[in-house]
Amino acid sequence: MTTDTISQTPRKGKIERLIESKAPERKDFEEYRVEIQRHYNGPAGAFLAAGSFISGHAPLAKRLFRPEAFDLAGVKRILDAGCGAGQFTEIVLEQCDPDASITCFDLSFEMLRRGRKKIPSSRTRPATADITRMPYRDAAFDCVICGWVLEHLPDPRIGLCEIARVLAPGGRLLILTTETTFFGAWVSRFYKCRTYRRDELRTACEEVGLYWTREFWWTRFHRLLKLGGILVAAEKNGFR
Hints:
Blueprint: E1 2-4, H1 14-19, H2 23-26, H3 29-41, H4 43-55, H5 57-64, E2 77-81, H6 87-95, E3 101-106, H7 109-118, E4 124-128, E5 141-147, H8 156-166, E6 167-177, H9 182-191, H10 198-207, E7 210-217, H11 220-225, E8 230-236
Parallel strand pairs: 2-3, 2-5, 3-4, 5-6
Antiparallel strand pairs: 1-7, 6-8, 7-8
Protein backbone atom coordinates (compact mmCIF):
# COMPACT_ATOMS: atom_id res chain seq x y z
CA MET A 1 0.00 0.00 0.00
CA THR A 2 1.53 3.29 -1.09
CA THR A 3 0.64 6.81 -0.06
CA ASP A 4 0.98 10.22 -1.64
CA THR A 5 0.14 13.85 -1.01
CA ILE A 6 -3.35 14.95 -1.99
CA SER A 7 -3.25 15.40 -5.75
CA GLN A 8 -5.40 16.84 -8.50
CA THR A 9 -7.07 15.03 -11.39
CA PRO A 10 -7.49 16.44 -14.90
CA ARG A 11 -11.04 17.27 -15.90
CA LYS A 12 -13.10 14.64 -17.66
CA GLY A 13 -11.98 14.20 -21.27
CA LYS A 14 -14.07 13.44 -24.35
CA ILE A 15 -13.26 9.72 -24.30
CA GLU A 16 -14.17 9.36 -20.64
CA ARG A 17 -17.44 11.23 -21.20
CA LEU A 18 -18.27 8.96 -24.13
CA ILE A 19 -17.59 5.73 -22.24
CA GLU A 20 -18.97 6.63 -18.81
CA SER A 21 -22.42 5.34 -17.88
CA LYS A 22 -25.30 7.73 -18.50
CA ALA A 23 -27.63 5.87 -16.12
CA PRO A 24 -27.42 8.51 -13.33
CA GLU A 25 -28.40 11.23 -15.82
CA ARG A 26 -31.25 9.47 -17.63
CA LYS A 27 -33.62 9.29 -14.66
CA ASP A 28 -34.43 11.34 -11.62
CA PHE A 29 -32.69 10.21 -8.43
CA GLU A 30 -35.58 8.18 -6.98
CA GLU A 31 -36.02 6.21 -10.21
CA TYR A 32 -32.28 5.70 -10.50
CA ARG A 33 -32.15 4.56 -6.86
CA VAL A 34 -34.71 1.81 -7.59
CA GLU A 35 -32.79 0.79 -10.71
CA ILE A 36 -29.55 0.46 -8.75
CA GLN A 37 -31.28 -1.56 -6.06
CA ARG A 38 -32.48 -4.03 -8.71
CA HIS A 39 -29.06 -4.01 -10.39
CA TYR A 40 -27.26 -5.12 -7.23
CA ASN A 41 -29.99 -7.58 -6.28
CA GLY A 42 -29.23 -9.32 -9.57
CA PRO A 43 -26.14 -10.66 -11.40
CA ALA A 44 -24.09 -7.47 -10.96
CA GLY A 45 -24.24 -7.85 -7.20
CA ALA A 46 -23.46 -11.55 -7.40
CA PHE A 47 -20.43 -10.74 -9.52
CA LEU A 48 -19.20 -8.02 -7.15
CA ALA A 49 -17.42 -10.25 -4.63
CA ALA A 50 -15.83 -12.37 -7.36
CA GLY A 51 -14.92 -9.20 -9.25
CA SER A 52 -13.12 -7.88 -6.18
CA PHE A 53 -10.84 -10.90 -6.23
CA ILE A 54 -10.33 -10.73 -10.00
CA SER A 55 -9.32 -7.06 -9.75
CA GLY A 56 -7.13 -7.82 -6.75
CA HIS A 57 -8.95 -5.31 -4.54
CA ALA A 58 -10.13 -7.87 -1.98
CA PRO A 59 -6.68 -9.25 -1.05
CA LEU A 60 -5.09 -5.80 -1.35
CA ALA A 61 -7.70 -4.35 1.01
CA LYS A 62 -6.13 -6.34 3.83
CA ARG A 63 -3.06 -4.14 3.43
CA LEU A 64 -5.21 -1.03 3.63
CA PHE A 65 -6.47 -1.78 7.14
CA ARG A 66 -3.10 -1.82 8.89
CA PRO A 67 -1.56 0.36 11.62
CA GLU A 68 0.68 2.08 9.07
CA ALA A 69 -2.24 2.71 6.70
CA PHE A 70 -5.88 3.16 7.81
CA ASP A 71 -5.53 2.16 11.45
CA LEU A 72 -8.62 0.77 13.21
CA ALA A 73 -6.99 0.58 16.63
CA GLY A 74 -8.95 2.39 19.33
CA VAL A 75 -12.18 2.89 17.39
CA LYS A 76 -15.14 1.18 19.05
CA ARG A 77 -18.12 2.18 16.89
CA ILE A 78 -17.57 1.40 13.22
CA LEU A 79 -20.00 1.92 10.34
CA ASP A 80 -19.57 0.15 7.01
CA ALA A 81 -21.77 2.35 4.81
CA GLY A 82 -22.95 0.56 1.69
CA CYS A 83 -21.32 -2.68 2.79
CA GLY A 84 -22.38 -4.76 -0.21
CA ALA A 85 -21.66 -8.43 0.38
CA GLY A 86 -19.30 -7.62 3.23
CA GLN A 87 -16.03 -7.34 1.30
CA PHE A 88 -14.66 -4.80 3.79
CA THR A 89 -16.74 -5.90 6.79
CA GLU A 90 -14.94 -9.24 6.86
CA ILE A 91 -11.52 -7.56 6.91
CA VAL A 92 -12.58 -4.98 9.48
CA LEU A 93 -13.71 -7.79 11.79
CA GLU A 94 -10.21 -9.24 11.62
CA GLN A 95 -8.37 -5.95 12.15
CA CYS A 96 -10.45 -3.95 14.64
CA ASP A 97 -10.35 -4.17 18.44
CA PRO A 98 -12.12 -7.23 19.89
CA ASP A 99 -14.64 -5.03 21.73
CA ALA A 100 -15.48 -2.87 18.71
CA SER A 101 -19.01 -3.01 17.28
CA ILE A 102 -19.60 -2.97 13.53
CA THR A 103 -22.79 -1.65 11.99
CA CYS A 104 -23.21 -2.31 8.28
CA PHE A 105 -25.95 -1.37 5.86
CA ASP A 106 -26.75 -1.55 2.19
CA LEU A 107 -29.59 -0.44 -0.05
CA SER A 108 -29.83 -3.94 -1.51
CA PHE A 109 -31.36 -6.58 0.76
CA GLU A 110 -29.96 -9.29 -1.50
CA MET A 111 -26.43 -7.96 -1.01
CA LEU A 112 -26.97 -8.03 2.76
CA ARG A 113 -28.18 -11.62 2.50
CA ARG A 114 -25.04 -12.57 0.58
CA GLY A 115 -22.90 -10.84 3.19
CA ARG A 116 -24.72 -12.48 6.09
CA LYS A 117 -24.18 -15.89 4.54
CA LYS A 118 -20.49 -15.12 4.10
CA ILE A 119 -19.98 -13.51 7.55
CA PRO A 120 -22.22 -15.16 10.17
CA SER A 121 -20.76 -13.07 13.00
CA SER A 122 -22.74 -11.84 16.00
CA ARG A 123 -20.47 -8.76 16.15
CA THR A 124 -22.02 -7.21 13.03
CA ARG A 125 -25.32 -5.34 12.92
CA PRO A 126 -26.66 -5.45 9.35
CA ALA A 127 -29.53 -3.27 8.15
CA THR A 128 -31.20 -2.20 4.93
CA ALA A 129 -30.72 1.56 4.64
CA ASP A 130 -29.96 4.44 2.30
CA ILE A 131 -26.80 6.54 2.64
CA THR A 132 -28.82 9.69 1.89
CA ARG A 133 -31.02 9.16 4.98
CA MET A 134 -29.28 6.91 7.48
CA PRO A 135 -31.32 5.70 10.47
CA TYR A 136 -28.60 6.54 13.02
CA ARG A 137 -28.30 9.29 15.59
CA ASP A 138 -25.84 12.17 15.34
CA ALA A 139 -22.20 11.36 16.22
CA ALA A 140 -23.07 7.65 16.57
CA PHE A 141 -19.76 6.36 15.12
CA ASP A 142 -16.02 6.85 15.64
CA CYS A 143 -15.18 5.50 12.20
CA VAL A 144 -17.01 5.26 8.87
CA ILE A 145 -15.94 3.20 5.87
CA CYS A 146 -17.65 4.18 2.63
CA GLY A 147 -16.54 1.95 -0.22
CA TRP A 148 -17.84 2.34 -3.78
CA VAL A 149 -21.08 4.10 -2.81
CA LEU A 150 -20.74 7.84 -3.49
CA GLU A 151 -20.52 7.27 -7.25
CA HIS A 152 -24.19 6.26 -7.14
CA LEU A 153 -25.20 9.76 -6.04
CA PRO A 154 -25.82 12.71 -8.39
CA ASP A 155 -23.97 14.94 -5.92
CA PRO A 156 -21.53 13.45 -3.37
CA ARG A 157 -22.55 15.99 -0.73
CA ILE A 158 -25.92 14.24 -0.38
CA GLY A 159 -24.16 11.25 1.18
CA LEU A 160 -21.23 13.12 2.70
CA CYS A 161 -23.56 15.33 4.76
CA GLU A 162 -25.09 12.22 6.31
CA ILE A 163 -21.66 10.71 6.96
CA ALA A 164 -20.56 13.93 8.67
CA ARG A 165 -23.74 13.89 10.76
CA VAL A 166 -23.29 10.33 12.11
CA LEU A 167 -19.51 10.66 12.54
CA ALA A 168 -18.30 11.92 15.92
CA PRO A 169 -16.03 15.02 16.00
CA GLY A 170 -12.49 13.91 15.25
CA GLY A 171 -13.81 10.62 13.82
CA ARG A 172 -12.05 8.86 10.96
CA LEU A 173 -13.43 8.22 7.49
CA LEU A 174 -12.20 6.01 4.66
CA ILE A 175 -13.61 6.76 1.21
CA LEU A 176 -13.18 4.54 -1.85
CA THR A 177 -14.85 5.61 -5.08
CA THR A 178 -14.58 5.35 -8.85
CA GLU A 179 -12.29 7.95 -10.37
CA THR A 180 -12.58 9.96 -13.58
CA THR A 181 -10.08 8.01 -15.67
CA PHE A 182 -10.29 5.85 -18.79
CA PHE A 183 -10.52 2.67 -16.73
CA GLY A 184 -12.89 4.27 -14.23
CA ALA A 185 -15.25 5.13 -17.08
CA TRP A 186 -15.45 1.45 -18.07
CA VAL A 187 -16.14 0.46 -14.46
CA SER A 188 -18.96 2.99 -14.38
CA ARG A 189 -20.62 1.35 -17.38
CA PHE A 190 -20.87 -2.02 -15.65
CA TYR A 191 -22.05 -0.66 -12.29
CA LYS A 192 -24.25 2.11 -13.77
CA CYS A 193 -22.54 4.81 -11.75
CA ARG A 194 -20.74 8.10 -12.28
CA THR A 195 -17.09 8.94 -11.60
CA TYR A 196 -15.40 11.70 -9.57
CA ARG A 197 -12.35 13.86 -10.02
CA ARG A 198 -10.13 14.08 -6.95
CA ASP A 199 -10.37 17.85 -6.66
CA GLU A 200 -14.16 17.66 -7.04
CA LEU A 201 -14.53 15.06 -4.29
CA ARG A 202 -12.09 16.77 -1.96
CA THR A 203 -13.97 20.08 -2.25
CA ALA A 204 -17.29 18.33 -1.58
CA CYS A 205 -15.84 16.74 1.57
CA GLU A 206 -14.49 20.03 2.88
CA GLU A 207 -17.84 21.73 2.36
CA VAL A 208 -19.40 19.39 4.94
CA GLY A 209 -16.47 19.43 7.38
CA LEU A 210 -14.61 16.29 6.26
CA TYR A 211 -10.93 16.96 5.61
CA TRP A 212 -8.65 14.66 3.65
CA THR A 213 -5.60 13.55 5.62
CA ARG A 214 -3.99 10.86 3.51
CA GLU A 215 -4.23 9.34 0.05
CA PHE A 216 -3.66 5.67 -0.73
CA TRP A 217 -2.93 3.56 -3.79
CA TRP A 218 -3.33 -0.21 -3.93
CA THR A 219 0.22 -0.60 -5.30
CA ARG A 220 2.91 1.53 -6.98
CA PHE A 221 1.66 0.10 -10.29
CA HIS A 222 -1.83 1.46 -9.57
CA ARG A 223 -0.39 4.84 -8.66
CA LEU A 224 1.71 4.99 -11.84
CA LEU A 225 -1.22 4.21 -14.16
CA LYS A 226 -3.90 5.93 -12.03
CA LEU A 227 -5.81 2.68 -11.47
CA GLY A 228 -7.97 1.45 -8.62
CA GLY A 229 -10.06 4.56 -7.98
CA ILE A 230 -9.83 7.18 -5.24
CA LEU A 231 -8.78 5.83 -1.83
CA VAL A 232 -8.51 8.52 0.82
CA ALA A 233 -8.63 8.91 4.59
CA ALA A 234 -10.39 11.91 6.12
CA GLU A 235 -11.34 13.27 9.53
CA LYS A 236 -14.35 15.19 10.75
CA ASN A 237 -13.61 18.72 11.87
CA GLY A 238 -14.03 18.74 15.63
CA PHE A 239 -15.30 22.31 15.56
CA ARG A 240 -18.11 21.68 13.07
